[in-house]
Structures are given as C-alpha cells and as structure tokens.
Amino acid sequence: MDLRHLNYFLVLAEELHFGRAAERLHISQPPLTRMIQQIENDLGVALFERTKRSVKLTPAGSELWQDAKQMLLQMQTVKKRLATHGQGQTGTLKVGYVGAVMHSALPTLLADFAKNYPNLKLHFEEQPNLNLVHELNNGTLDVAFVRTWLHVENLQEDLVLNEPFVAILPENHALAGQEKIKVKDLKQEKFITFTRECGPTIFDSFVVLCSRAGFTPHILHHASQLNSVLRLVESGFGISLLPQHVQNGYNLKVKFIPLEDAAENIPLLMLSRKENPNPALLNLRDYLKSSSVEKLIK
Asked: What residue intervals traverse the membrane (predicted)?
C-alpha cells in the first residue's frame, strides 16, 4: 500500500460516503471502490462495512485510520524538512580557513549568515592553504577562506573583499603620530613580514608596493604567524605592511597607519569545489555577494 492508497482510504474514512470521497479525490466512484477493495485484499482484512444506506469503519479500519493519519503527518514533516534541506536552509556546511582570515570582516559576516539560517550548522576547521585545497578536493570541506589567489583548476575562487595595506609601527616610532604615511618614507626601515610560503599574495603585493615606491625592502625577519609579526614590531625590531583588519583582536603597543599611495590590495577569497552539490554553499556565496555585505565591508 503506497501513499496514494493511504490517502484514498483516509478520505473515505472521513467522508464515509463513496460519492463524496470520490468527488474530493477528483475521480469517479468505481476506481475508488476498486482501490479500497485492493487495499483490503492486500491487508487481508475488511476496513469498511458497506450497506446500501451507509458506510462504516470496521474495528480494523478504525485502527488503520489512526495509524494512517500519523503516517501522513510524519511524511508531510519529512517532505518539509527535505525541502528546506534542498533549499540550503538545513544541514551542515563545513568551513575551512587560514588563520589570517579571522582578522577581517569574515567572522562577523559568517555570524550574520548563521543568524539568517538558524537550522544550518557551520563546522569550522583551520588549516594551511595546501591542506584546505586537498580537503576541498576530497569533499571533506564545502568551502574555504584564504588570503591568496591559488588558481586551482577544479576550484571556484570568489572574491569576498579587498583590503588596503596599513603600516604597522611601534608606538614610539618617529612616524607613529602621522595620520597617513607614504610608502617611500619607509625606504630605510627594517621589515617584519610573512614568509612567502604562508602568504604569497600578501608577500608579493608588499614587494610590489616597495618597488613602485623606488626601493627594495630590507626584510629583517620572515614569520609564519601574525602574532609573531606584531610582537616583533611591538618590540622595535622593525615595521610591517599588512592588511588593514589585522588590528582587530589585538591590544599591542603598535600603531596602524593608512598608506597614502598603496595601490595594492589583499584579497579575502572563498574557495569551493565547482561541482559541490551542497545547496547551502549557494546561499553562503549569494549572501557574501549581497549589497548588505558590501556595506558592512565598507
């Protein structure tokens, strides 16, 4: 007995009249009669007592009626739940990221996205760039956020935002009181920066900035962690040029000063497997591209 049979039985059990039941079901009476007979034959029990004047449920019919109503209600609930899953409103979205993206507008954006989709679970995992690519390819992750263009053939790269560079100086530096600094004014400085392996786009853009300002930077130390860069700057070993939002979440004795002539920007990118079927991924991508997100970034 399938759901269509079950529905025919329920309508007849409610109407207790073949003519009215057939009318509700938009069929003629003979097919309904045959369908009920088939159900009774399949179950091996009479469900209705039929006379020329009335139709009544048998004890077996009354029991099936209660069970059938519950079964249809459960099926309707399942259909609604699966429909929201198909729309990307429920389920799980596995999110990977490199640590540097946490010093940006991204955490706020993801928190707002989660509020709009309260039945969607976000699972987070921090990994280096190459590990994120591997886990995207094998399906362990749905999406990853990175700070560098990777140009992997089977991955989609969506630009979420661009951030300008700022100069990061010890608070007692001679230029720390400036509202803005020209890159060329940093020609004689010692620089603390990320290793190129950790942040190729940040490193290459930094070198381009200095080159356009007419000098090759004197790099005193390459660090692999943002905290290491900032603490070395705080301690007076050098200065750094990094994306604007790295100042979020730190209370160190350093100054973050905008650069007047820095044409280079640092991207925040969303990576995903091109054939990923998770509908929640489409919702996240659309959300990050929305006008409200652009306003938040600005």
From this structure: none
